[in-house]
Amino acid sequence: MPVLVEVVLLAVPPGARAVPAPESLTEVTYEVNDTQTMVEFVRNGLAIGMLPQSLLETTGEIAFVPIRDHAPEFRTTIAIPANRRLSAATRAMLETIRRHTGA
User: Fold this and answer.
1) Which among 71, 59, 84 has a CA at the least distance from the CA of 19?
2) Which of 29, 48, 28 is nearest to 38 (CA)?
3) What's the rounded Cα separation, in Å, for the pair 59 and 82?
């Protein structure tokens, strides 16, 4: 990744990462705990970061560069109570998730 050698990198703390930081990144300059702070750092030219475009509303201040090879994969877990009945809305949401993910 020679293109990234000269830029300031932004990441979430290691315990909060969905996936480990790429081994090729030698130094993360800033670590932040929330998406909004990451967006503001990027928007103000303080760093680059990796965020899904779907999380952001932008008016052109942020350029998105697609990751074509070796794109990260994020796994999400849904926790539901085992000791009480789920509401109709929760059951509908879980069914929608199952249909779209094949889980």
Assistant:
1) 71
2) 48
3) 43
Amino acid (1-letter code) at residue 11? A
The tens digit of pLDDT for each residue in 87-99 reads 999 999 999 988 9
Q: Catalogue the E-assigned strands of the chain.
A: 10-11, 30-31
The length of the chain in residues reads 103
According to DSSP, residue 11 is labeled: E
CA end-to-end span of the chain, whole Å?
Answer: 34
Residues 9-35 pLDDT 10s: 556 555 555 555 555 555 677 778 888
Phi, psi of 9 (to 5 degrees): -105, 145
